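Recall that a protein's primary structure is simply its ordered list of amino acids. Everything else, from secondary elements to tertiary packing, is in principle encoded there. The following example makes that idea concrete.
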Amino acid sequence: MGDVAEPVVPVFFLSDSTGISAETMGNALLIQFPDTVFERTTIPFISTVEHAREVVAMLDEQMDGPVTPLVFTTAAEDLVREELNRTRAPLIDFFGMHMQRVESVLGRSGRREAARLHGVGDIQRYNSRMAAVEFTIEHDDGQSLRAMDRADVILLAPSRCGKTPTSMYLALQHGLFVANYPLVDEDLERTDLPGPVAAYADRCWGITTNVDRLSRVRNERRPGSRYASAEQCRWELRRAKQLFEAHRLPVVDSSSKSVEEISALILQNRTSRAKAAERVRRTQEENPA
């Protein structure tokens, strides 16, 4: 007899906003169960008690099925939250779990309004992120070299190493102005940084991967081409590594890391760089030539 397949666990992410927060926090827990298969459903914009009742009725029907569902919610509006908590389904209420604790520490009540995390409640932060996204789109894959001095981060790598998704994540989630520049054969034949980024080495990060992964990804785009050959990938990655080492650029290997992990490493290194630069500045001020 063959192995009996594990049942698929229904998972619901509920929110009175976009559902992104519920998905992010819920998936951070679910990823700890790699041998379990989940069927995910997001129900966003539950903005009225009536809508919440409909969702509760649907969840209660799920409880009559063969597998108990998991439900994650970040609903902030009290009446909606109270209604959702009436469900018979096991419900993990991220907002309810933590809001009271935060309020007690701060000594004041939160607004408990929907859409404040991903909405435009903080208009200055929202506008900053949108400006960062616009800059990053314009400077994707070396398309524009205009105003490179405004870049907070410049990513260098051979094609298909993960520059674009990392750039967009840093812009959208952290409001950073990110340019990414593809290292082509002409750049890799030299040891100098490419001209457009040479003056900004202190903002540059290298991204690399392994030969097998790069060749596989490129073959999906251009099957059987020289561009996708293991030989070409090996040469580009070797030369890129030499370039990064020659200029002492921090390097992140994207072969086994998610965009979130790559971004976290870049942010951590960026903080370390800033602190080191500040120490140098203070030393120079204290000990002028």
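The beta strands are 9-14, 38-43, 70-73, 91-93, 153-157, 178-182, 204-208, 251-253. The longest strand covers residues 9-14.
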